[in-house]
Amino acid sequence: MSPVVVVGAGLGGLAATVRLAAAGRDVTLVEAGDVPGGCCGSASLDGYRFDTGPSVLTMPQVLADVFAAAGHDMESLLPLRRLDPYYRLRFHDGSHLDMVAGREAMAERVRELCGAAEADRYLRFRTRLGELFAAEWHDFIDRDVTRLRSLLRPLALARLASLGGLRRLDRLVGAHLTDPRLIRAHTFQALYVGLSPRQALGIYAVIAHMDTVGGVFFPADGGMHAIPLALADVARKAGAHIRYGTRAVRVETGHDGVRAVRLDTGERLPARHVVVACDLPGAHQGLLPPEAGDWRLRRPRFSPSCLVMHFGLDRRLADQAHHTLHFGRDGDSGFSALRAGRPQPDPSLLVTYPESDSSAAPEGHATLTVLEPTANLRGDGDWTRLTPYLSERLLGRLADLGYGDLSQAPRLTFDPPAWAGLGHSAGTPFALDHRLTQTAWFRPAGAAGRVPGLHFAGMHTAPGVGVPPVLISGRLAAERILRTPR
After folding, report:
1. Cα–Cα nearest to 396, from 386, 405, 409
2. pTM, whole model, 2 decimals?
3. Are 42 and 19 in contact, with CB atoms under 8 Å apart?
4. CB-hemisphere CA count at 13 Å for 367?
5. How far apart are CA 186 and CA 189, in angstroms?
6. Can you give the pLDDT at residue 1?
């Protein structure tokens, strides 16, 4: 049997491991950290537990499919609950909009905020989002685009173009909606792919569909870190060997492709297939052989980073949504500042309040996480100065927004240097941005063309950033291996 080594126990590596082990392959998963999770991590302080990675889970069926591949029902191992509302959007004029489940219920919220005519426009736009999603999902997102011919689908591309998917996102949304607040509610997701709505293509309107139509979910217990813990458990039950606290230092190759993975312990793990599911630009700095180089990474363009502050609260908050987005006054100036490597003058903030997670805080207490987008380390910012400045400004902003004085609360702070210390190239946990030249086939390939048996998974490969795309990347890597004769 051809042995497989997977490097990195993030969601992509775990998804590949589960599927390979369930198919009967001899799989060893190597993880430098002490626990699974990768970007979907966890940290503790003074009795509080914080999710240090993604807080938004959409498309739960993609996750359920990983469990099902190993014969497990996700609901019995990792029950999820649908958030209500998905988001609470607060605008600078004092108004707010709750994104809720149900077509008519959401239209009524829009009607109350923006009027009947805009509600009618919203319903038509919601239909268009569904059409875009249907046109993209099977042909471009849930598909292996390692080879260029995978994109040569004239009818599918023509359908995308007819729906506005190849226009700029701001123009696509602005052609259907007129209220600036509602437009921002359906374009802020561009930051997830590292771009402003003026840069992002209309195809990324599908993120708004995933969020605002498909819904946002959260594990019923244990927070987002419960996801990799559950996947690792399923992988072990399927027969995978998991090595924590062990770093892969070199993928060894021969004339016929992959031969082995060398570990920092000095051990050599023979392998005919390797899935590298860690930070890909970093992997090219020593882990991977020179012949694995990908021209797509010669001039990588990275997404902005973020400053994240986790607070332990000695109280619970009244009428606080799980996710609240506080919009800054001018989104365009904020994106311009990020591109120039400067602090945003009036940033939008994402506040996460996981009240339902009983593991997050002692009884009667709670946690609060605040994310502010920032430049990454490719700029010339002095973060020894910027981090204290941004932290103090953020504390003041939170007090003004009604969260009280949090300056004395237990807190953990992650800034771009901290993200770099965790292994994220350019100090950003959002990988490469999704400009056209870093999308689909133009994104780093899922397999090394000149090294048979070498595969890649994670957010640096297609489909890209986000929990569902990363899980899909792991599935695609596993499928390529399973198609290869043993």
Report:
1. 405
2. 0.96
3. no
4. 27
5. 7
6. 62
